[in-house]
Amino acid sequence: MMRPRVATIVGCVSTRWGGAARRWAAGAAFLTLFVLSAGTANAATSTIDVGNQAVVQVWARTGSDVAVRTWERPAVQIDTDDDQIQVARRPLAFGTVQMPMSVAIPVQNIQFRDANGNPTTGTLPPEDFPFAPDMRTGIHDVVHINAGEGTHTTVTVPAGTAIVDARVFGNGQITINNYHGGTLFVFANNGVTRLENVSAATFAQMLNGRLLAFDSSFDRLRARGNTAAMFFERCRAKQIEVTTHSGPIVFDNGTFEPGLARFESTNGLIAVGVDGNAQVNGRTQDGHVLAMFEQRPRFDQRAEGDATATIGAGGALVNAVTGHGNVFLYDGALANRRAVPPEWRQLFTALQRQAGTASPASRSEGVLPGFGPPRRPVRPGFFRRG
């Protein structure tokens, strides 16, 4: 059993600050836990016993692969090839003024090209993201894992883990498998982030690269990026907001429940494929709203850049808004289309570009929508909710 040294929290909160400032500082403190004073573990496998509704942070530097999965044991297991990995465990009280039941996401600087192709800078604004409603207030065991550059780390967490916070600082890969019932944070600058069979309140910040989610269910999802491509395949969403600056957004063969559903990009294309009932509104400033339905919906096209499709019995209101791209509306899965109109080639070209940069394993598994036969979901069994 590994017994790392107790870590300290970086940062403090002044009681003289206003409420908003205190909440931002508290959120920043949570997002920067345990950077200092962590114990060093040996490579291979280590295990730490934790209590109910633990909080697990897995951070790694550029070139690393981070994987998180679940099991039914009350322990966190770490498998790594990093012989200098730092691991710390300590109790932390949530639901206090210093550590409220939400995280204040700080402002994020981004770089992109303007309409004339000139490099420029901008920001993703600060946001507040509440924890899942079933997270209890009080003391939680917090385990922080800090891996080095170019490492491979797999962390197995209890099925009832309250919070998973996974990030790679730079280019790398994050994979989350079978995590249910808690709150998930994923952060990456570049590379690939994969969410498979996830059912959690999720905040994902993927600045560049690709975010891939499949066979997942989100009561609440917030995903944002710069040039990142956001792909969702066979997912269910109740409250979902996805934004990019110039990356494409594809929600393929998905289902919606009544709630907030918004996909928005400044310059990227947006494609929404619905499996079931929904009312989808597509709007673009100087592009086109294009539709391709096998089951004829009620379709109201007010202009080239403004149209609404009522699919099935209607129901959930879905908004797809882009400034300088096209909006594609359809039913079902792109992979089932035998032929597509010529004007849809832009969408398939974008998908092919992403597939060309994906790993061979990703392409063969059908992670990217619209390529090869539909990938049948593999569900090894849902773990109990925490």
Task: Provide keyphrases for this structure.
30 strands, 386 residues, 2 domains, globular, disordered C terminus, 26-stranded mixed beta sheet, two-stranded antiparallel ribbon, 3 helices, mainly beta, disordered N terminus
Give a count of the beta strands, DSSP E runs of length 2 or more. 30
Our estimate of the beta-strand percent is over 45%
Q: What portion of residues is helical?
A: under 10%
Integer tally of domains: 2
Oligomer: single chain
- Sheet with the most strands? 26 strands, mixed
Class per helix and strand makeup = mainly beta
The shape, in one word, is globular
Give the CA-CA distance, first to last residue: 24 Å
Unreliable residue stretches: 1-28, 34-39, 358-386
Contiguous helical run count? 3
- Based on CA atoms alone, the radius of gyration comes out at 21 Å
Rounded average pLDDT: 82
Write the layout of secondary structure elements.
Blueprint: H1 19-31, E1 39-40, E2 44-49, E3 55-61, E4 65-71, E5 75-80, E6 86-94, E7 102-105, E8 108-113, E9 119-124, E10 127-130, E11 138-147, E12 152-158, E13 163-177, E14 180-196, E15 199-206, E16 210-214, E17 217-218, E18 221-224, E19 229-233, E20 236-237, E21 240-244, E22 249-256, E23 261-265, E24 270-274, E25 278-284, E26 289-292, E27 298-303, E28 306-311, E29 317-322, E30 327-331, H2 345-357, H3 360-364
Parallel strand pairs: 3-11, 3-13, 4-12, 4-13, 13-14, 14-15, 14-16, 15-18, 16-19, 17-20, 18-21, 19-22, 20-22, 21-23, 22-24, 23-29, 24-30, 25-29, 26-30
Antiparallel strand pairs: 1-6, 2-5, 5-12, 6-11, 7-10, 8-9, 25-28, 27-28
